[in-house]
Amino acid sequence: MSPQSGVIADTRGNLYGTTSTGVVANAGVVYKVDSTGRQTALYSFTGGADGGNPNAGVVRDPEGNLYGTTCCGGTAGAGVVYKVDTSGKETVLYSFTGGADGSDPVGVILDSAGDLYGATWSGGSANAGLLYKLDTAGNETVLYDFTGGADGANPRPSLIRDSAGNLYGTAAGGGAEHDGVVFKLNTTGHLIVLHNFRGGTDGSDRSSV
User: Fold this and answer.
1) Which of the following CATH numbers is that of domain 8-146: 2.120.10.30, 3.40.50.2000, 1.10.150.20, 1.10.10.10?
2) What pTM did the predictor assign?
3) Is the pLDDT at 138 greater than 80, yes or no?
């Protein structure tokens, strides 16, 4: 089944997460574990247009709908952003083309207006990944396109967002020593490298913040 990320909890103590493989098409599931430890598959991916192999967890809105990404599947095989509602119905909110819009998305976060923010591991102009916003109508806006150089490459899950709207995260590659970076993206689209990993006592290839 290969759970690839952590879980989130609701006010009743139920947990929600994903596995990257398993169930009907071996393409992963979104699941719930209740307070007694009973697991329920809320949605099983087919690996087709609905997406396949989620490699990050989910976020939950106030109505109980779940949102996440799959690294594979979709119309171009480059992954999707999806919603699973409280009845278990899955809706593809965006299907990546693998080009300038990104490929292999790695999780999303949700703001109070219902907009989603996320990163793609690859795709973009340098195939080094990018940061994007997906509005409630399903329109994607590329917020930052990594060059693979000093700014970093291959952002990892998951982003965090402060009250002013700045985004923070990590990239697995690039940076001054090619060992990854911690970055901040401000609301004007300017990326600031907060730390360059050097592969020594500070570590390298950071996974998240």
Assistant:
1) 2.120.10.30
2) 0.93
3) yes
